[in-house]
């Protein structure tokens, strides 16, 4: 920066470990006043600052979704008949289908913060957030989360630990 500061890209504060979102940060030349200057689902990388102080950076938008594929046909038929299950604007990780095959749960940073989502696999409803703000109990034996059902009650997530 013309004043001796530095602009850099960092994944600090990203809620998903991989792939994280990168935001631009600005720090004074002496290392003080480090502050984030971009926010949201998009990643900003490779910043460059002109002598005038104008900033340019590459913006990366990455999306991932879950698709349902058949396995009984030819490879071309299986690909042609694929059905898109989710329509996220962020990353999806660790999908798991319920034992009866009716629901799918996954972690996604859709909206800028990692949450657990559930989707009905017959595609009749939009996916909904089922848990956010997950936190450990003081004795490290349980996980708690704000759950969308019943008005956002805080509940213990049994069976997770």
Detailed description of the structure:
The chain is mostly beta strands. Helix content is 4%, strand content 40%. The chain has one helix at 75-80; strands spanning 6-10, 23-27, 35-36, 43-49, 55-60, 67-68, 83-84, 92-97, 103-108, 115-120, 128-136, 143-147, 154-156. Strands 8-9-10-11-12-13 form a 6-stranded antiparallel β-sheet, with no helix packed on it. Strands 1-2-3 form a 3-stranded antiparallel β-sheet, with no helix packed on it. The protein is flat, with a radius of gyration of 21 Å.
Helix content: under 10%
> Could you report the average pLDDT, rounded to the nearest whole number?
77
> Helix tally?
1
Q: Largest beta sheet: what is the strand line-up?
A: 8-9-10-11-12-13
User: Strand pairing plus helix content: what structural class?
Assistant: mainly beta
Number of domains: 2
Radius of gyration: 21 Å
Q: Largest sheet at a glance?
A: 6 strands, antiparallel
Query: What percent of residues are in strands?
Result: 35-45%
Describe, in short, the structure shown.
This protein is 4% helix and 40% strand. By secondary structure, it is mainly β.
């Amino acid at each position: 920066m013309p004043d001796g500061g530095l602009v850099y890209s960092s994944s600090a504060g990203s809620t998903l470990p991989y792939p994280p979102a990168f935001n631009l940060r600005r720090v004074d030349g002496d290392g003080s006043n480090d502050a984030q200057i971009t926010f949201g689902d998009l990643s900003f990388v490779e910043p460059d600052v002109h002598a005038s102080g104008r900033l340019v950076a590459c913006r990366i938008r990455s999306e991932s979704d879950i698709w349902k594929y058949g396995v009984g046909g030819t490879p071309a038929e299986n690909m042609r008949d694929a059905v898109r299950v989710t329509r996220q604007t962020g990353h999806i990780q660790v999908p798991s289908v319920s034992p009866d095959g009716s629901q799918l749960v996954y972690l996604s940073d859709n909206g800028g913060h990692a949450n657990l989502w559930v989707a009905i696999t017959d595609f009749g409803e939009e996916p909904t957030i089922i848990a956010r703000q997950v936190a450990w109990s003081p004795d490290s034996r349980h996980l708690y989360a704000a759950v969308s059902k019943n008005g956002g009650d805080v509940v213990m997530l049994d069976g997770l630990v």
